[in-house]
Structure formats: C-alpha cells, structure tokens
Write a structure and sequence with these properties.
The chain is an alpha+beta fold and about 350 residues long. The chain has 3 domains: about 20-80, no CATH class; about 85-170; about 195-345, Intergrase catalytic core (hpI Integrase, Chain A). It is built from 12 helices and 12 strands. The protein has helices at about 1-15, 50-65, 75-80, 85-95, 105-125, 135-145, 150-170, 195-205, 210-220, 225-230, 275-285, 325-335, and strands at about 20-25, 30-35, 40-45, 100, 100-105, 195, 235, 240-245, 250, 255-260, 270, 345. The longest helix is centred in the middle third of the chain and has 20 residues, at about 150-170.
C-alpha cells in the first residue's frame, strides 16, 4: 500500500504538461514556470495558493505568446512598479494609509474599495497613472450619472487622494490631474429631524422590552448605534450614574468587527440622566444577571449569563443586534409598518 501511494506521488510529480510546468513547494503553495520564446525558463513572480491559479497564469502566458505580445514576466513586473496602473497602485496604497499612526478601519476600507470597483476601475483600472491627464478625469467625472451625487463625489475624492499619495511617495512626478473644483465635496441629501422628547418616550414605551434600554441610552446619552450595542455590564456604573464608552461594533460584509470608538474623543464617560437609571437597572437584572468571577456578561436572554457577552445585546449567545433588525423594529413601533423607512432618529440629549 505504501509502495502504491509513493508510486502515485512520483507519477504526479513527473506528469507532463502541454505547456509549462507546475510543482508543489514544501510550503504547500504552487509554483509555475515555462520555457519562453527566448528559450529561457521563466518562473511566475509569485507562488499560488491553488493549483488552478498556477494553471490560469500559464494559460495567460501562453495566450500572450500566441498573440505575439509576449515579454518576460519579470520585465512586466518591473514596468508595473515603475509605471503602475491605477489598479496596481490603489489597493496597496489604501492598505498602507495611516490615521494618527493607526491603519484604516474595516468600514473605511469598505467605503474606499466600493467606489474603486464600481466607478474608478472600469475607466482607469488598466491605465498607467503617469499618462492620466486632467481632460481624462474631466471626461470620466462627466460620464458618471449626475443623480449619484454622493457616490460621484466620493469616487472623485478617492481618485484625487490616490494621485496625491503617489506624488508624495515619489511614484509619480508632476501635478495632480484631478483639478475639478468642488467635485469631491459631498452635501447632505436630506435633513435629519430628531425625535422630540415626547416621541422618544413613546418610542421607548412601545419598543420591545429588550430594546428599551438601547433607545434611552442612544437618545439621552448621545451614544452611536455601535457604541450602544457593544456595551458590557462593567461599562455601566449606575451608582455614579455614568456609562463608560470603550468599544464599538460594526458589521462589515456580514461579520461583526469590534474595536475602539470612531475617534479618540469617542473614548469617554457619559452622565446618565437620573430618570434613565431605573430602566437600566431593571434591564441588567433581567437581561444581564450578575456573573461569577471571570465570566463575561450577556443580556441576550433572561438568566442565561453563560451564553454571551454584551450588556445591550439582544440575540442568542450575546451577539450584537444587526442595525437592519433594530431599525425594522423601530419602524414597526413608530409607523406601525416595517415597510416604511425610518427617517428620524432619537435626538442626542445631554442631561441638564
């Protein structure tokens, strides 16, 4: 049996291909190479996670040879480094950005890569950055649907910042081709009308009990959605009437990402109005009972401390409630139907 398995492995390694060669490295990754028109062996500039990716690279190289457009892979890689296209430069440039020494947050990265894929790459993706002219940017900007005002402004601002970053890093020389005055400015499409005090009280009164504390914390303490639903029991000091904001949760591509608040100023202590304290105390007693030492808090279900973590979570195992689920509940409470969009939000009020 062992002899047969060894023979099969040897056969796999010696298998002949119509074009090129593929071998598996000790790292478990795949390496592809071929004999080029210059009769020299050319190895892929990178290794591949899957064998099919190596085969796809060989197929692309064979296509270049058949079309009489072939050049050395190393020469092409050098050309991309010296004269990168927008699609070559943008992903790494964005990932390398820092804000006060910290990498960009997942939600910010998603906000950047969205316009890249939808609006920038279709026009400039395969264009070398050094040959992009102001007229090209003007034509691209004019071709975007004017009704997409926010998306167009965000895409233009991102493209302008990429060229500015490339110039600063020495990748490009000369002036920034993005010169449309005011094109990167976004304007609020609609005004937000805060709920009145009476409406906040009505919303809290008619909201399901598990969400009542979240409504009051958002309205009277000025907490953002992600800050409310990542509070832990230890963040609430009801004796002193203070809530400590230390973390926030966001949802990116269906996954929950927990991190620091949106800015340094987001790390703060907030006074809780006296009339809100009894509701929070009742909420903790039902949805986040006292825990044994070393256990993590939960409020997803009454008296099920071992299943979760957050003090305002409302789902099994303590995972934070999704924004869409919360807004559907609020829509139903305010308007009587979940189909109507919730265009108003609780006012952020400070206790007097």
């Amino acid at each position: 049996m062992l002899h047969d398995e060894g023979q099969d492995m040897a056969t796999t390694k010696r298998r002949r291909r119509g074009f090129g060669a593929i071998r598996r490295l000790p790292s478990k990754r795949w390496q592809a190479s071929y004999i080029g028109p210059d009769l020299g062996r050319h190895v892929a500039p990178r290794t591949f996670h899957a064998q099919m990716d190596a085969e796809a690279w060989l197929a692309a190289e064979r296509k270049l040879i058949d079309a009489d457009e072939w050049t050395s892979p190393l020469w092409r890689a050098r050309q991309r480094r010296e004269a990168p296209t927008v699609q070559d430069y943008a992903p790494e440039a964005i990932l390398n950005r820092r804000v006060r020494g910290e990498p960009l947050r997942p939600t910010t990265l998603k906000l950047y890569f969205g316009p890249l894929d939808r609006l920038i790459y279709p026009t400039f993706g395969e264009v070398q950055m050094r040959i992009v002219k102001p007229a090209d940017v003007m034509a691209w900007h004019s071709a975007i649907d004017p009704s997409l005002r926010t998306s167009r402004a965000q895409a233009y601002a991102l493209l302008r910042s990429l060229f500015a970053q490339a110039i600063q890093e020495g990748v490009l020389a000369g002036d920034n081709p993005c010169r449309i005055r005011g094109a990167g400015v976004t304007r609020r499409e609609r005004s937000i009308e805060p709920l009145t005090i009476g409406e906040v009280e009505a919303l809290a009164r008619h909201t399901p009990e598990r969400l009542r504390a979240a409504v009051l914390l958002a309205a009277w303490c000025g907490l953002r959605f992600g800050e409310v639903f990542e509070l832990r029991r230890g963040d609430l000091d009801l004796e002193a009437g203070v809530v400590h904001v230390r973390r926030a949760v966001v949802r990116v591509d269906g996954a929950e990402v927990i991190g620091r608040p949106k800015s340094d100023a987001g790390l703060r202590k907030v006074a809780v109005p006296p009339h809100v304290v009894p509701t929070l105390r009742d909420h903790l007693s039902v949805w986040s009972p006292s825990l044994a030492p070393g256990r993590r808090p939960c409020c997803s279900r009454p008296c099920r401390a071992r299943t979760g973590r957050t003090a305002t979570s409302t789902r099994r195992r303590g995972s934070p409630l999704a924004r869409r689920s919360a807004c559907r509940t609020f829509d139903s409470t305010i308007f009587g139907t979940p189909q109507r969009s919730w265009r108003r939000r609780p006012a952020r009020r400070s206790p007097s």
